[in-house]
């Protein structure tokens, strides 16, 4: 089913159960990226569509629950250049499976940064401008990112927001 992780794969995502719509098919793919101080933890994700053609209203946490195999891109930090970050995003785009995100299917993913970016706000602002410009050219990959949106899917998390994600991952 669109590369959904099996229950025997282990980890906290398997404990969350099936996606919100049990009779669903893959409508788009993207990435949920946890951008930490030492790199990016990348979770390939997909959005499900119910049989009645209504897109499920799951949030970023539900997208993580339906991931394919995750991986790490090391060495990406607040000290990286905009060109380096955009090159990584370009490479990730090339590796999306069939059914890749399109503007009409979004939002399909997010890139959220943590403490490393909070500690370098000026550098973070420049990098986020670069990510949002990239999202303008590639609509749907990061959902509410660029495109005149609220940028809720591409931002640096506050400490309390990061704590909520940590708590949810432990449950």
TrEMBL record:
<feature type="region of interest" description="Disordered">
    <location>
        <begin position="1"/>
        <end position="23"/>
    </location>
</feature>
<feature type="compositionally biased region" description="Low complexity">
    <location>
        <begin position="1"/>
        <end position="16"/>
    </location>
</feature>
<protein>
    <submittedName>
        <fullName>Uncharacterized protein</fullName>
    </submittedName>
</protein>
């Amino acid at each position: 089913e669109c590369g959904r992780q099996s229950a025997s794969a282990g980890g906290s995502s398997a404990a969350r159960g099936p996606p919100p719509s049990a009779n669903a098919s893959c409508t788009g793919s993207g990435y949920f990226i946890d951008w930490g101080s030492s790199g990016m933890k990348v979770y390939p994700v997909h959005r499900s569509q119910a049989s009645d053609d209504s897109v499920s209203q799951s949030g970023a946490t539900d997208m993580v629950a339906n991931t394919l195999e995750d991986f790490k891109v090391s060495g990406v930090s607040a000290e990286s250049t905009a060109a380096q970050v955009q090159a990584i995003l370009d490479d990730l785009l090339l590796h999306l499976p069939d059914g890749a995100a399109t503007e009409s299917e979004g939002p399909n993913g997010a890139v959220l940064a943590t403490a490393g970016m909070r500690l370098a706000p000026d550098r973070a602002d420049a990098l986020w401008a670069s990510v949002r410009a990239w999202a303008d050219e590639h609509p749907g990959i990061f959902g509410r990112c660029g495109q005149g949106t609220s940028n809720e899917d591409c931002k640096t998390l506050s400490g309390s927001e990061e704590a909520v994600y940590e708590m949810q991952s432990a449950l």
